[in-house]
Hints:
This protein is α+β, with helices and mostly antiparallel strands. 51% of the residues lie in helices and 15% in strands. The chain contains 26 helices and 21 strands. The strands form two sheets. Strands 1, 2, 3, 4, 5, 6, 7, 8, 9 and 10 form a ten-stranded mixed sheet that branches.
Amino acid sequence: MESLLKDIRYGIRGLLKRPGFTAVAVITLGLGIGVNTAIFSVINAVLLRPLPYQDPARLITFRSNQSAPDLADVEAQSQTFSQFGGLVAQPLDYTAGGEPVQFQIGQVTGGFFATLGVRPERGRFITPEDDKTGSPYVVVLSHALWSKQFNGDEQIVGKTIPLSGNVYTIIGVMPAGFDSPRENTEAWTPVHVSNPVAANFRGVHFLRTYGRLASGVSIEQARAEMQVIDKTLAAQYPADNKNRTTALIPLHERVVGQSRQSLLVLFAAVSLVLLIACANFANLLLARAAEREREFVIRAALGARRWRLIRQLLTESVLVSLVGGAIAVVLAIWGTSLLVALKPENLPRLEEIGVDGRVLLFTFGISLLTGLIFGLLPAWTASRGGVNEALKEGGRSATAGGTRQRLRSSFVIVELAIALILLVGAGLLIKTFWKLRSVEPGFNPAHLLTMRVELPEARYKEVDKQTRFRTQALAAINSLPGVRAAMVSELPLSGASLDHDFLIDGRPPIAQGDEPSLETRSVLSDYFHVMQIPVLRGRDFGPQDYADKAPLVGIANAAMVRQYFQNEDPLGKRVRWARDPEIHWMTIVGVVGDVKHFGLDLPEQPGLYSPYTQAAPWKRWMRLVARTQSDPAGMAQAVKEQIWKVDSQLPITKVETMNELAAESFAARRFNMLLLAIFAGLALALAAVGIYGVMSYAVTQRTQEIGIRMALGARASDVLKLIISNGMSLILIGVVIGLAGAFGLTRLLTSLLFGVTPTDTLTFVVVSAVLIFVALLACYIPARRATKVDPLVALRYE
């Protein structure tokens, strides 16, 4: 131990005497380890940390939603699950705190909280007794809502609050660490009380379902049981459950979603950045060892064994790597804050991301391993020289020098190859992003303002009251100078959807449960004109279609025509909803162009537009769209005030421009592209520093040779060509290896790409050219310095 402490003290003194070397090495490793720590902190929070529920490994979720009656039947028939719970998100209005707002409510079945195995901090949670149609209105608050909206009232349990026209009694407050499986949920109510119509309708599959496996039961056993239950429900209720299958997946897998692959790709990318940083670190150690060769020889001559010298060098490399790791922690704290600020749409558990004990342990481990592994080879090489050879010619050893130079060149080749792989990946994602930005959404998003309004059932139960509000609100908004407004139930690019099984008049009969499905959207006013969606055939809706008791009409999108009326004229064809208790035929009077409804990278589904006046009374939500002549964001307050003139108790949410909504639709791809581009840029910079260091070292080693050449008549251009040609050989080898690696590894990016193949030729060519240019520039600087060598000085070198 005493000997180790002496090594540490000696190493610290040596590092302090060479502040330039120490600073470069620490910064290089700090950057490499820092980006790894930042990404690992995200992976730790999202992928590794268990969900905050009791025994989360036994929690299972259904991939497809269930209806409340189906869930009750599943619970009654299942032997492999001990508990079941269902959840659907539904905003409710709160109007007792000044400006009306909406709470994001989780409407849950009675077994929801027991299934998750959580308990409230205050009061109690919702039980099966609460979740019965006609039971009292009760609500459980999240800790965040209780603190923010109700100032942490210690006596909150038992008090009442108004939500969408009904008075709810607060029965509990959840603890601060509780996160609902459905993110951003602020409170919970019994679904059979707050949404009795949907909860008692078997055909409405709207509940995200969770189950807790019974003790000793595997997920394979539960899946086998669910296949039997699916067949039973399909036989009993073919109209609603025919061809429905229940896929069971672990809850953690559902929460993580598709973020796993993108996070692993990013972690692989930063690992490659770390490899480049480590190669630079090893090169620095090799250069440092070359400078200290006489010191090692003298120590060996005085009796120091080879292992003693290696241990001293390893101690110094570990000291540097640990200091780099400390800087990495600071960079990671800043980096994780930046990642959270970017708020990638596809990244769950954002609030849990941070530097904790596991992240610190990861940083310490990777720092220690970096110092040991990448310090060992330089230390081993530095300790190889013989005493006699090293003392000759002023301490230079041609054999050791050649070995070190080959090692340094090998490290640079690896750096260039890795940098090329990262640059190609970043180039593919950048091209994907550019392709997405050029996709036509099917409408004109410029100068469009959007906002969401939902009418409370307590005050707007009848269609005529809903219609009166909508027409008055639109009239008020359209009175604003330069504004033209309309309404739609599901907004383009929002991803919101509502589908119905339907039948086409005159087609052969279809068995119950086998009917095709159709996206349905309700509109009011001159919607297609406001959105600038082209009417391809037939006509738009007119005043006669919005009149009371007008004939039912619809306008199909092009996708519906392609799929169901490929060789027919759709105009005049009639369709109806398969589940309506009464037969109501709807006549198609027009065809409009497709819009990108679910994302710019996804195709439009068959859909049918119909007037809001002909919608069911439960369709009380709407997305208002207003086209303005000026900046749409600047008109938001004026539009909201016009709505409040009609009803001052309505919350207005999701106020954003259509351009902002379009940007959100590819936010996840932008996040991946941005990070990979940053990592690739860092890799390119480190690789350039690496080849600069190698060429600079080579010039220093060949100073005498260069002086002799110049004394014999070599011109500056000849020397320049000599040095650059040596560097070019390294660059070309690195590029060839990198291209081979990129051809294989970029296939892992396939799911992250759009409109681009993983082997896109243009990307490979451009990226290779950029890397070669930057690397040549890094070679040119030391080569240019070589041309300035004075032959007289060089001949006296060493």
